[in-house]
């Protein structure tokens, strides 16, 4: 389902780019040649309507892809997908002190070196 919506989304994006490039602009753009099947105001309104339809469809597929991605990712984490086991100890880790050390970190604002625990 996601792949189908994604392909439609990409086709809408390409169609939207093509229609926008065909429209007239102040400087001429790619539609500067004039003439052709549709000229004047009729071309502007028809291309404007097609642009609006493609834009609304593009936004709808964007929202659909967002909803599909959110449903797939519900309740999972990147770490869960890696398969890394959680650490076994629940004791807080003090930065700068090796695990299993019998040294206490210095007090806040205290410049004394690490000292052994008093038993």
UniProtKB/TrEMBL annotation:
<feature type="transmembrane region" description="Helical">
    <location>
        <begin position="51"/>
        <end position="70"/>
    </location>
</feature>
<protein>
    <recommendedName>
        <fullName>Protein-export membrane protein SecG</fullName>
    </recommendedName>
</protein>
<comment type="function">
    <text>Involved in protein export. Participates in an early event of protein translocation.</text>
</comment>
<dbReference type="GO" id="GO:0043952">
    <property type="term" value="P:protein transport by the Sec complex"/>
</dbReference>
<dbReference type="GO" id="GO:0005886">
    <property type="term" value="C:plasma membrane"/>
</dbReference>
<dbReference type="GO" id="GO:0015450">
    <property type="term" value="F:protein-transporting ATPase activity"/>
</dbReference>
<keyword id="KW-0811">Translocation</keyword>
<keyword id="KW-0472">Membrane</keyword>
<dbReference type="GO" id="GO:0065002">
    <property type="term" value="P:intracellular protein transmembrane transport"/>
</dbReference>
<feature type="region of interest" description="Disordered">
    <location>
        <begin position="85"/>
        <end position="119"/>
    </location>
</feature>
<keyword id="KW-0653">Protein transport</keyword>
<keyword id="KW-0812">Transmembrane</keyword>
<dbReference type="InterPro" id="IPR004692">
    <property type="entry name" value="SecG"/>
</dbReference>
<keyword id="KW-0813">Transport</keyword>
<keyword id="KW-1003">Cell membrane</keyword>
<keyword id="KW-1133">Transmembrane helix</keyword>
<dbReference type="Pfam" id="PF03840">
    <property type="entry name" value="SecG"/>
</dbReference>
<comment type="similarity">
    <text>Belongs to the SecG family.</text>
</comment>
<dbReference type="GO" id="GO:0009306">
    <property type="term" value="P:protein secretion"/>
</dbReference>
């Amino acid at each position: 389902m996601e792949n189908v919506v994604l392909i439609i989304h990409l086709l809408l994006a390409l169609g939207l780019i093509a229609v926008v490039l065909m429209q007239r602009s102040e400087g001429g753009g790619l539609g500067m040649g004039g003439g052709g099947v549709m000229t004047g105001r009729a071309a502007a309104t028809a291309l404007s309507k097609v642009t609006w339809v493609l834009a609304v469809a593009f936004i709808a597929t964007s929202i659909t892809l967002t909803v599909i991605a959110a449903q797939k990712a519900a309740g999972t984490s990147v770490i869960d997908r890696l398969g890394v086991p959680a650490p076994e100890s629940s004791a807080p880790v003090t930065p700068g002190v090796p695990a299993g050390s019998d040294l206490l970190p210095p007090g806040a604002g205290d410049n004394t070196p690490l000292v052994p625990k008093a038993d």
